[in-house]
Design a protein that fits this description.
With 164 residues, the chain is α/β, with parallel strands linked by helices. It contains 8 helices and 4 strands; from the N terminus they run H-H-H-E-H-H-E-E-H-H-H-E. It has a single domain, classed as Diaminopimelate Epimerase, Chain A, domain 1. A 4-stranded mixed β-sheet has the order 3-2-1-4, with helices on both faces. The relative contact order is 0.22.
Length: 164
């Protein structure tokens, strides 16, 4: 518990921005935009440097926080219920994927875990941009099989990554 508290106390927005500089965030946005041309699902990428110490003390997990953001950012509110949140909690080196019911019912939890594992492997090597883009590509490939692109695409969620 103390180690986690220390990590969250010492992980700043600046440290997350060093791992994900502006060109990397631009590459992630471009990957989301390109991906969404191949399907009608919506992908949202959120990077949070650290949790508030109160949340850490209360035992809030990366999964719990991802679910909170999934709701508050209204990723669940897409027309076809096919929004996907990729959440990175930098202090914990954790990646979570939360998919709306329309998508999650078609793709099993094992697929989401496999995508997270690929991203985490790249992150361990310090390849944050590459790992993020890879996850988006993998999600996009699953989405393309389940949700064909629309004739007139509607972009319901922002494609730009959100750095909290």
């Amino acid at each position: 518990m103390l180690k986690r508290l220390w990590r969250h106390l010492t992980t700043t927005r600046a440290s997350a921005a060093r791992a994900f500089p502006a060109p990397s965030l631009d590459a992630i946005e471009s990957a989301i935009t390109a991906s969404e041309l191949t399907h009608s699902a919506e992908i949202r990428f959120v990077l949070e440097p650290a949790l508030d110490l109160g949340d850490v003390s209360a035992g809030v997990t990366s999964r719990t926080r991802a679910r909170q953001l999934f709701a508050s950012l209204e990723v669940w509110d897409t027309q076809a219920n096919n929004g996907v949140l990729v959440y990175v909690l930098f202090a914990d080196h954790a990646i979570e994927i939360i998919a709306d019911r329309g998508f999650d019912a078609r793709v099993g939890a094992d697929a989401w875990r496999a995508i997270c594992a690929e991203g985490e492997a790249a992150y361990r090597e310090g390849r944050f941009e590459a790992g993020s883009v890879l996850m988006i590509e993998r999600i996009g490939a699953l989405a393309a099989r389940q949700f064909p692109p629309q004739v007139r695409p509607i972009d319901e969620l922002p494609n730009s990554p959100l750095l909290l």
